[in-house]
Design brief:
globular; seven-stranded mixed beta sheet; alpha/beta; 11 strands; 185 residues; two-stranded antiparallel ribbon
Length: 185
Amino acid sequence: MTTKVLIVTGDAAESLEVLYPYQRLLEEGYEVHIAAPARKKLQFVVHDFEPGFDTYTEKPGYTWPADLAFSEVDPGQYTALIIPGGRAPEYLRNDPELRKIMKAFFDADKPVAQICHGPLLTAAIGGLEGRRVTAYPALELDMQAAGASFQDAEAVVDGALVSSRAWPDHPAWMREFLKVLRAKG
């Protein structure tokens, strides 16, 4: 039986932070499903830096179909969870179905990989209390307010939770996550 990994996301997720782990895990032989608020074609975005801007800019990115709606997800069918960033976590953290899914993964101590703004979802379920994490650097105060110890590093491993700052850190993030997934999965 193929090991399944779930990616939870929505519109305005960072294209690279969804598709890089999706393809990397497929390459490793995992079955990967993308869940969103509804089964539909999702519109991802590209965040980049432009001279003269104080923060990142946002441009339309790839589109990709969601395999499942959050209401259709059985967390017990999945070994691990991926939480991409972008703007999606800002509104997804209000989704009660997604919070149930995430809580199930954390309660079972299953491997979870989060990146960029993804930890906003983990914070919404109280999953950062007492943990060491990284995130997009502008979220340092949010991570501390959620009870986490923020570290500015490519990848931070705290038990089954692997976090990363943003898409430039993908190699370190997936390398560490695959170690955890192989050990626990």
